[in-house]
Amino acid sequence: GLGVLPRPMAALGAYRCIECNEEATELYRDYQRGVLRISICKSCQKPVDKYIEYDPVIILINAVLCKAQAYRHILFNTKINIHGKLCIFCLLCEAYLRWLQLQDSSQNTDPDDLIRYAKEWDFYRMFGIASLEQTSFFIGIFITLWWMTPEMLKRKSDFILLLKALLLSTYGKLLLIPAVIWEHDYTPLCLAFIKMFVLISNSQAIRVTLNLNRILPWFAIFFGLILENGVVFLFQKLGWDV
Asked: What's this protein's function (predicted)?
């Protein structure tokens, strides 16, 4: 499962209605003896969070389909603290893919220890480059959103929530590993689709977190890609394989 648990009650504004994004004080009410009643949103008159009754697999499928309701459930109404671990694992997947491509392009098969250490260093280097690229991508997004909607990012907690949402929405990079394992002639096309899926997930995460329209998140992502590609260009200027 997702390893998340819904919480029944909290202070005002701790939860969000997954349908209209309005604040709510509780997700459900416990009448004891196993009797639970899902709270109804005072704004849209729909259940605040219908997903608290759903199996985690169904929630995951809805998240993969980029449904805003599933994103709101995960971001606002659950306890989930896998952002850092997920980010590291995704970066390791990306670093491994780049390292593998680098080894494929190398004709040196010498088993010498020095060569093995050099190959190991190449993996660490790819991990560092992938980390810097993702950091620059996120910085570009934050700069754009702060410039376009400064009222949305007034508090430190707003930045932290958006960062967590972005980190969670990069889960699509986990598909890089099967794409490499089952390598075939269409692998480059698969990688392009994975990249597009991650960007769509990023856009939905920004839209849900800040309650924006569909255009502004894509504008922020576009600027983030420009900054990311600028970092790639810099590494290429330094003569590094990326």
From this structure: Mediator of sterol homeostasis involved in sterol uptake, trafficking and distribution into membranes.
Q: Are 217 and 165 in contact (CB under 8 A)?
A: no
For residue 207, pLDDT over 90 is answered with yes
42 CB contacts (<8 Å, ≥6 apart)? 22
**Domain total for the chain?**
2
Whether residues 142 and 231 fall in one domain: yes
- Closest Cα to residue 165, out of 133, 147, 142? 142
The pTM assigned to this predicted structure is 0.83
Q: What confidence category does residue 201 fall into, taking pLDDT thresholds of 50, 70 and 90?
A: very high
In a domain, 51, yes or no: yes
Q: Domain check: are 19 and 109 in the same one?
A: no
**Bridge partners of residue 9, in order along the sequence:** 26
CB neighbour list of residue 93: distance below 8 Å, 6 or more residues apart: 173, 174, 176, 177
List, in sequence order, every residue forming a beta bridge with 79; answer none if it has no partner.
Answer: 5
Instruction: Count CB atoms within 10 A of the CB of residue 81.
Output: 9
Two tokens, residue 157:
């907690």
C-alpha 177/C-alpha 93 separation (Å) is 6
Are 137 and 45 in the same domain? no
- Whether residues 119 and 209 share a domain: the answer is yes
Tens digit of each residue's pLDDT (9 = 90 or more) over 103-120: 765 555 555 555 565 677
DSSP state of 171: G
Do residues 31 and 6 lie in contact, with contact meaning Cβ atoms separated by under 8 Å? no
